[in-house]
Amino acid sequence: MKSDRLLSILLLLQTRGRVPARELAGRLEVSVRTIYRDVEALSAAGVPVYAERGRHGGIELLAGFRTDVTGLTADESRALFILAAQGAHAALGLDTALGSALRKVMAALPAPYRPAAEVTSRRILVDATRWKGGPQPAVDLDTLQDAVFTDRRLRLRYRHSGQQEARTYTVDPYGLVSKAGVWYLVADRRTKPQLFRADRVRSAAVLDDRVKRRPGVELADVWEVLRRQVEERPGGLDVTVRVRRDRLDMFLRLNASQLAGLPDDDGASEWVTVRLSYGVAREARQLLAFSDRVEVLSPPEVREEVAAAAARVTELYQRVDDGPV
Predict the structure, then answer these.
(1) Lowest mean pLDDT segment, chosen from 50-64, 80-94, 252-266
(2) Collapsed DSSP state (helix, strand, coil) of residue 125
(3) What count of other Cβ atoms lies within 10 Å of the Cβ of residue 288?
(4) Looking at 59-73, 173-187, 278-292, which range is the least confident one?
(5) Cα separations (Å) of 80 from 44, 75, 105, 120, 229?
(6) Residue-wise over 164-182: b if at least 16 C-beta within 10 A, else e?
(7) Residue 64 to residue 46: CA distance in whole angstroms
(8) For residues 228 and 244, is the Cβ–Cβ distance under 8 A?
(9) Is the peptide bond before 299 cis (omega within 30 degrees of 0)?
(10) Which of 13, 126, 296, 302 sits most deeply, having the most CB atoms within 10 A of its CB?
């Protein structure tokens, strides 16, 4: 709608100052000619807006002009009060600021929308942490935030999973991402994108050097590439198991990342066939957590791997029963 577009232009100009007409057209998905017609409409409505042509020109409001009009619709106002996990704001030191911001937004809302927004904040809760995820290690994001917001390079001492010693890296950060309650630093290392779990950063120092990001690449772009690499990593080993129905839901939930398709479930059998994908056979040892509720059907090398692991566990407990190891 034209009215929504005019309000969007007004709010963008208040936030950004002078904005090129081509950029406004791209953001609002209209032609540059339409933007200039909208500017004329705003001016006719009494908004002190003007356009300057040329290389450094753009659309701009008269200095000092502000409007208190929020332009929020009922759905937009409700959406603002459906917040992601509050732990994310706490980790960034923004809990107090968030509460203050929401109070200001509530005060600025049109009166008819306030009750719906208040009810939404009490009726909808988003908790991004996983069930039974265990205690999360303390994460100090201050230095990482400092580098991200000041556009500086970082020197990290970082311990990779499965390694005892930390390694030193110099990276160019794009930003921070919270994924299922876990914070990640997204950065380039030698112009290649890489993820660093914040809770594995042993130390971090902000360098004087300006960050060196790839031109035109934003945080969302790099995150999408890294996310796909993780989620689409090919499994090297297809494994077929059968699971007792009384443990199926839990099994599927805990092994979601290894599932290679929907289970073969007729809705009646005591056992349900499930296909999984692992990188190597030893990763299937985790199936022992389900004891006799899961049986490996194929391939033979995985059956042998799991059986051998089970035998070692049995031997350990037998030795404990016989006396101190």
Answers:
(1) 80-94
(2) coil
(3) 13
(4) 59-73
(5) 32, 9, 9, 9, 32
(6) eeeeebebbbbbbbbeeeb
(7) 15
(8) no
(9) yes
(10) 302
The number of residues in the chain equals 325
Pairwise CA distance, residues 39 & 18, whole Å = 13
Residues 26 and 44: their CA atoms lie apart, in Å, by 24
Judging by beta carbons within 10 Å of its beta carbon (0-12, 13-18, 19+), is residue 206 exposed, middle or buried?
middle
Task: Write out the H or E segment, with its range, that includes residue 5.
Answer: helix 2-16
pLDDT digits 0-9 by tens, 17-32: 888 988 899 888 899 8
Side-chain-facing half-sphere of 19: CA atoms under 13 Å: 24
Q: Distance (Å, rounded) from C-alpha 137 to C-alpha 259? A: 28
Which CB contacts under 8 angstroms, 24+ apart, belong to 12-15?
Answer: 13/49, 13/59, 13/60, 13/61, 14/61, 14/66, 14/67
